[in-house]
Amino acid sequence: MADFTKILQQAQQMQGKLQQIQEELGNMTVTGVSGGGMVSVTADGKGQVRAVKLDPSVVNPADIEMLEDLIAVAVADAQKKATDLAQEEMRKLTGGLPLPFKLPF
User: Fold this and answer.
1) Residue closest to 77 by CA, chosen among 28, 38, 31, 44
2) What distance in Å separates the CA atoms of residue 74 and residue 76, rounded to the nearest whole number?
3) Going by DSSP bridges, is the β-strand pair 39-44/29-34 parallel, antiparallel, or unpaired?
């Protein structure tokens, strides 16, 4: 029975560390860019977009589609960087073992 108790304690410790990592990710930021830096998107480590910055030169009312594409690419870049950051933080928790699942963001 002692082994089961020990496993339960380890699971609780890991759950606490996981919660701590999730909180830390919420405080970390990544930046995705497109158009050579004319569009930048800042997101937290969980992938939630926090800010969008546009260079005035990309705001052309006659070409809204280009601006939409640049924003979409910058958001995707920021979210990929957030996913990579989260996976790196999780590797710290798992001792470098690769995660067998995709994170939910």
Assistant:
1) 31
2) 5
3) antiparallel
Give the closest residue to 54 by CA, choosing from 76, 30, 71, 79: 71
C-alpha 8/C-alpha 99 separation (Å) is 21
Question: Which two structure tokens, joined as six digits, stand for 62?
Answer: 């006659």
Q: Which residue has the tokens 């798992």?
A: 94
Judge whether 63 and 80 are in contact, CB under 8 Å. no
Residue-wise pLDDT tens digits, 4-49 = 888 888 878 888 888 888 888 989 999 999 999 999 999 999 999 9
Distances (CA, A) of 50 to 20, 57, 99: 21, 22, 27
